[in-house]
Design goal:
Layout: E1 4-7, E2 13-15, E3 21-29, H1 34-44, E4 48-49, E5 52-65, E6 70-80, E7 90-95, E8 99-103, E9 137-141, E10 144-153, H2 159-168, E11 172-173, E12 185-195, E13 199-208, E14 212-217, E15 220-225, E16 230-240, E17 245-256, E18 261-262
Parallel strand pairs: 11-18
Antiparallel strand pairs: 1-3, 2-3, 3-6, 4-5, 5-6, 7-10, 8-9, 10-13, 12-13, 14-15, 16-17
Length: 271
C-alpha cells in the first residue's frame, strides 16, 4: 500500500533568538517498516527550511501491523542553524558566470556582404573597422572565480603571514594550483577576522582565466598566451585590391605579461 504523510495541526513549532529552530510534525501511514518510513520522510521534507538546516528526524510508532505491512507513525523533523566550521576545516564557493573582454579580432569572418557588383573589403577578422581605428566589441569569455574559507589557529596567522597575503595579492600562480595550470589563477586577496582567542576565519579569493595556445590573428598564427597575459594587435593601413578599398590589417600581435608570478604554496591552504 502507498505511504502517505499528513502534516499535523501542531506542526511548525518555531523558536526564535540566538539558536532558532523549527519543528515539522507529520502523521505517516502505509508501512510497518521503520526504514521505509524514514526514507519517505527524508524524501518528502526539504533539506533546508526557512534558511535552517535539517538536523534530526524522530520517528515514533503509534501502531504497527506487521502481518499486513501497515502502520501509523509520528515523524518529527527538526531544523536549526548550520553547524559552525571547526578549526582546521574549510568551506568553498565558486562562480562560473564568465567575464567580459574587449576584443578587436574575431575567430572567423563568417560572411561578407556588399552591393551587387561590389566586393566587401577583407579586414582579416578585424571588428568594427573605421577609417581611423578598429573599434572592436565586448564579449563574454570563459572565466571562473572561487573562494575558500579556512579556520586557522592563531599561532599560524602571524604578522608575517598577513604581510605575505598582502604581497601575494594581484599575483599569478607560478605552478599548478587548485586544478589550474601555471599562469591561470590570479589571487584577488584575502579577508580575515579573529574568532575568540583560538583561531582566525580567513577567506581567500581567486579568479581563473584559461591558458590558450595556437591563437590566430588574421594571417598571424601560432600565438600562445597564458591566462592572465594580455594579447593586443597592431594594425596598419593596407589596400584590398579586390575591393579597391583601404583596410586595417593586423601586422603584429603582442603577448604582454601584466601580472607577476608567485608561489601560492605560501598561502598554506594546499595546492
Amino acid at each position: 500500500m502507498p505511504i502517505t504523510m499528513l502534516e499535523k495541526l501542531d506542526s511548525r513549532r518555531v523558536s526564535l533568538g540566538e539558536n532558532p529552530s523549527v519543528e515539522l510534525v507529520y502523521i505517516l501511514t502505509g508501512t510497518a517498516d521503520d526504514a521505509a518510513a524514514v526514507a519517505a520522510v527524508e524524501a518528502a521534507t526539504p533539506l533546508i527550511y526557512q534558511g535552517l538546516l535539517r538536523q534530526s528526524l524522530q520517528l515514533e510508532p503509534e501502531w504497527v501491523d506487521e502481518s499486513h505491512g501497515d502502520g501509523q507513525w509520528i515523524a518529527t523533523v527538526r531544523y536549526g542553524l548550520w553547524p559552525q566550521p571547526k578549526q582546521g576545516e574549510s568551506t568553498y564557493s565558486f562562480d562560473t558566470t564568465g567575464g567580459t573582454q574587449h576584443i578587436t579580432q574575431s575567430i572567423q569572418t563568417v560572411h561578407k556582404y556588399a552591393p551587387t557588383g561590389k566586393t566587401a573589403p577583407d579586414f582579416k577578422g578585424a571588428i568594427g573597422v573605421t577609417p581611423d581605428n578598429v573599434e572592436g566589441v565586448d564579449i563574454t569569455i570563459p572565466a571562473c572565480s572561487f573562494a575558500e574559507t579556512h579556520y586557522l589557529p592563531t599561532v599560524l596567522v602571524t604578522l608575517a603571514y598577513r604581510v605575505a597575503l598582502f604581497r601575494l595579492t594581484g599575483k599569478v600562480n607560478n605552478a599548478p594550483f587548485k586544478g589550474c595550470a601555471a599562469g591561470e589563477c590570479l589571487f584577488l586577496g584575502a579577508t580575515g577576522s579573529k574568532r575568540g582567542a583560538d583561531d582566525w576565519e580567513i577567506t581567500y579569493r581567486f579568479a581563473v582565466s584559461p591558458n590558450k595556445t595556437n591563437i590566430s590573428v588574421g594571417e598571424i598564427t601560432g600565438i600562445d598566451k597564458k591566462g592572465w597575459e594580455y594579447l593586443w594587435v597592431r594594425y596598419q593601413d593596407a589596400e584590398d585590391t579586390a575591393a579597391n578599398a583601404l583596410i586595417k590589417k593586423p601586422i603584429a600581435a603582442y603577448v604582454e605579461k601584466v601580472y607577476e608570478d608567485a608561489d601560492f604554496s605560501i598561502l598554506g591552504i594546499g595546492v
